């Protein structure tokens, strides 16, 4: 299934090893059975581990040929006799951990390619990989075991934490990035925010004197743009996941563990609490406060502060239930008339 | 008209040569008249070929000084006496073919620039151009006559078909690209999809073990992002045109000859049939099936499966007629009240 | 406040010097007081200059410890005795000019890095900085004092005006850029527009034979894409500010001093007058005329010509007042029923 040209399988794991790393309980006596790969239920073979996360795929479980399968306790009875049931409170999470064990993140040689241009005043940590045609500016600090891939440009004084991976064709300036964070190809971080004062003869640029501060364990998607602050900093909280082609304006602050789906925009100076989820193509107007745990549906346009913990939809955004009611009412009425 | 600094005119063509390549019928006895360029009706001179595609420009046809003009049969009588009518079933297509004959795609020297870093285990086809500061990884395969422009990064084991053109500052990984496909500047293909399992303490990344498979004769626009599959592949069907700044999530599959206009997003695992057209800034939610021939208007948000062959508008998307009716009704009612 | 690692403070300025450059009137007899920095009201110290632009922050003014503060005449009485009032018609503009004096744009060495590949036939002006791994094509013309940062690719015959700054990882082709214009990282300018003729067997590409012409004093944001014209040129008027991730289709023309906020798309052949403002994630359909002074709210979808001077909202876009009325009416009615 998995194309071994692109992904290197790291070898065998016993059922017991898998249950330990995946936080699951083996329902078999034969815990030394050996597995070699992961696969979806419908394609798995006896040497594969699979999982059931969505009840929609119940029939696939009944028919599966997988050697073992992560399931919630309530579905044990559906597991065929030839498949070992591995009971997990979160089968998808267990699958993720198992897949990671079979297919660890790629490793990089610990070296600085000769074609990289690294300033004499930059500090490069131990065990780093610096790729071809990377340019690293004065006084930049790169943490231990960091990876900087080809053709990426790191500006003066930028700080990158330990174990970060900065992929290819990225541009970073005026920013500090926490450890274990990953920046995807083509990402732009730290450029000037969009700030100008009006003038009858045109616009006067306002110097953007803040930074971008990104926490640890974040993922920042391909071609996403995060502008630096105008005076305050732009801040992305630890553990946050930002998808591709997202725009984050100057002075924005997100809490920890936020999820921002592709093509969403957060306008200048808005602040998100923790565990906020913004669906794809959503827009958050400027200077708003979005409380922790807020969920904003795809394509919504948020124009007001949101207190947190609820789901919003529509443009202008409103509570989900109200949006669905309004949409249904409008459809009904306009058909009648 | 055309700036010869940027575009090199390849020379003269007779009316007969043009009719042959453009699939048109010359309505004149003087088929050996020579033409040197293409131009819009209002700016054309006697040595130019023009076309009428949109009835809106009828008056321009009547007034034109073009030496010849592609028209549908029904408009022959509007063509001035000094202009040769070239009857075509598709004047715009005929124009395209003629313009291509006068201005062929730029040619590239068949060489690998010395500044390119090509892995010893990569295979480079015959007649390729590999530009400055290109980086090509281990076991990559580049087809014959392919062009890879400056500062592009091609990951390990990537496969690029014959006659592909990969423009500058592109990042490719974990993908296979069919012949004669063109990738525009800044495109990101093959990076990890946005996949994680929830956890009370944060998110667990789910390894993305699929690829991106792009067919032949495709165009993929500038700064567009196509994530690789999570397990299944992400697939773009042959002959599809994807515009700039589009997001294609993991496991998405498009049929052949789809058109995806700028800034549209297709969320994970959705599948498009053949000849589907998505207008600009449209959004397709995840796990949907969009039937062949579906047209989705700009800015629409599709939240349900669509059977195909119809046009949809609005967010949530509905049949075009219903959207227009609903919009008109709402405008009328809210004005009254 | 300002991180001196990233921003170099250029030294001291007297109150008089500041008033001169910022077009403000000092309300104190001690015009030789010396200042060293700018800061927001709430964080300013006696050596800082601050400003009040938004009445919301009135209390901050009353409590400020700033040494001096730009205010409108009507707020003089709120300025504490320990703060010098600097009366300005536009305090934010005055602040911008002062901040620029303390923190001028970074300067670049006047040199061509040895790793840059510059065609023998390109003309590089006096005092330019050309960064590492820049590639400049045949017959390109780079104006005096221009800055081209690392890993940027400039195509054949491109013309860049004096004092332009083209940041890193940019791709330019088929374009001419006026003086003093700035192009942000990852910007793509001049690639083929999205033009094809339909055909039962697929699509025929229409050669894109126009250029992109950008005026002087423009800013073009990170990862923004501006396609070249199909025959006519794509034109961005002088003094226009375009934010990140914006799509500008082929043949679009904007007047002078337009503002286009992030993630907005302007479809092919639409024309904007002067001082048009498009909010974030707005969409302008193709072939429209948008009059001077038009303001389009974020997320709006414009499907018709707009005469100018008014504000529009919604998708389809309508006058702002109508949109707000319609939205309120719909909310009220759907709640009742």
CATH architecture of the largest domain in chain A: 3 Solenoid
Averaged pLDDT of chain A, please? 95
Greatest chain-chain contact: B-C, 59 and 53 residues
| Total beta strands of chain A | 38
Strand order of the largest sheet of chain A: 10-13-16-19-24-27-29-32-35-37-38
Task: Tell me what the structure shows.
The structure is a homotrimer of 337-residue chains. With 337 residues, chain A is α/β, with parallel strands linked by helices. The first copy, chain A, has two domains: 13-102, 3-Layer(aba) Sandwich (Udp-n-acetylmuramoylalanyl-d-glutamate--2,6- Diaminopimelate Ligase, Chain: A, domain 1), CATH 3.40.1390; 170-321, Hexapeptide repeat proteins (UDP N-Acetylglucosamine Acyltransferase, domain 1). The first copy, chain A, is 13% helix and 27% strand. Chain A is built from four helices and 38 strands. Chain A has an eleven-stranded mixed β-sheet, covered by helices on one side. In chain A, strands 8-11-14-17-20-25-28-30-33-36 form a ten-stranded parallel β-sheet, with no helix packed on it. In chain A, strand 21 (196-199) and strand 22 form a beta hairpin. In chain A, helix 1 packs across helix 3. The radius of gyration of chain A is 24 Å and the shape is flat. In chain A, 57% of the residues are buried. At the A-B interface, helix 3 and helix 4 of A face strand 21, strand 22 and helix 4 of B.
Furnish the topology, listing elements before pairings.
Three copies of one chain form a homotrimer.
Chain A lengths: L12 E2 H8 L2 E2 L7 E2 L1 E2 L9 E4 L6 H6 L4 E4 L12 E4 L3 H12 L14 E2 L4 E2 L4 E2 L4 E2 L4 E2 L4 E2 L4 E2 L4 E2 L4 E2 L4 E2 L2 E3 L4 E2 L4 E2 L6 E4 L2 E4 L6 E3 L4 E2 L4 E2 L7 E3 L4 E2 L4 E2 L10 E2 L4 E2 L4 E2 L4 E2 L4 E2 L4 E2 L4 E2 L4 E2 L8 E3 L4 E2 H17 L1
Parallel strand pairs in A: 4-5, 5-6, 6-7, 8-11, 9-12, 10-13, 11-14, 12-15, 13-16, 14-17, 15-18, 16-19, 17-20, 18-23, 19-24, 20-25, 23-26, 24-27, 25-28, 27-29, 28-30, 29-32, 30-33, 31-34, 32-35, 33-36, 35-37
Antiparallel strand pairs in A: 1-3, 2-7, 21-22, 37-38
Helix pairs in contact in A: 1-3
């Amino acid at each position: 299934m998995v194309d071994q040209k692109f992904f290197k399988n790291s070898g065998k794991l016993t059922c017991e090893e898998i249950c330990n790393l995946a936080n699951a309980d083996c329902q078999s006596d034969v815990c030394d059975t050996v597995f070699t790969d992961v696969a979806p239920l419908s394609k798995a073979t006896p040497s594969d581990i699979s999982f059931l996360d969505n009840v929609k795929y119940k029939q696939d479980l009944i028919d599966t040929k997988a050697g073992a399968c992560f399931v919630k306790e309530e579905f044990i009875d559906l597991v065929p006799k030839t498949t070992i049931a591995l009971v997990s409170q979160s089968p998808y999470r267990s699958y993720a951990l198992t897949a990671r064990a079979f297919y660890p993140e790629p490793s990089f040689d610990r070296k600085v390619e000769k074609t990289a241009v690294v300033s004499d005043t930059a500090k490069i940590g131990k065990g780093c990989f610096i790729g071809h045609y990377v340019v690293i500016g004065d006084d930049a600090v790169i943490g231990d075991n960091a990876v900087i891939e080809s053709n990426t440009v790191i500006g003066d004084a930028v700080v990158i934490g330990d174990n970060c991976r900065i992929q290819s064709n990225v541009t970073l300036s005026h920013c500090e990035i926490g450890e274990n964070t990953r920046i995807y190809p083509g990402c732009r971080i730290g450029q000037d925010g969009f700030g100008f004062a009006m003038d009858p003869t045109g616009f006067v640029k306002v110097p953007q004197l803040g930074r971008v501060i990104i926490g640890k364990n974040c993922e920042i998607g391909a071609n996403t743009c995060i502008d630096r602050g105008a005076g305050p900093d732009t801040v992305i909280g630890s553990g946050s996941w930002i998808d591709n082609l997202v725009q984050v304006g100057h002075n924005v602050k997100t809490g920890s563990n936020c999820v921002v789906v592709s093509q969403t925009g957060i306008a200048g100076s808005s602040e998100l609490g923790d565990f906020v989820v913004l669906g794809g193509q959503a827009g958050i107007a400027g200077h708003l406060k979005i409380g922790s745990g807020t969920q904003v549906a795809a394509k919504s346009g948020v124009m007001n502060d949101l207190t947190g913990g609820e789901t919003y939809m529509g443009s202008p955004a409103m509570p989900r239930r109200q949006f669905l009611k309004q949409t249904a009412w409008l459809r009904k009425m306009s058909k009648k008339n």
